[in-house]
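Below is how a single chain appears once it has passed through the pipeline. First comes the sequence as given, then the structure the pipeline wrote out for it. We keep one example in the README because the format questions we get most often are answered faster by looking than by reading.
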Amino acid sequence: MEPEADGPGTWSRYWPRPWPKVPGFELDTYDPTKEDFGKFSLDEQIKHKRWTILFFYPADFTFV
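Resulting structure:
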C-alpha cells in the first residue's frame, strides 16, 4: 500500500530536503569537446529556471 501524497508519514519525508539557498557565484569552465573556455553562473541558472546540483567531496574521495 502506497502512502498518501499529503499529510504526516508521506513519501515526502524520505526525499532529501534542500539546504538554504547558495549565494550566487561564477566559475570559469573548460569544455574539452569544443576545446574552449566559458563561464558558469549560478544566477543565470536560476534566472532560466534550470535545475543545478552542487556536489562537494574530499579532494580524492577518501573516507572522512
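Strands lie at 26-31, 36-41.

See the next section for the split statistics.
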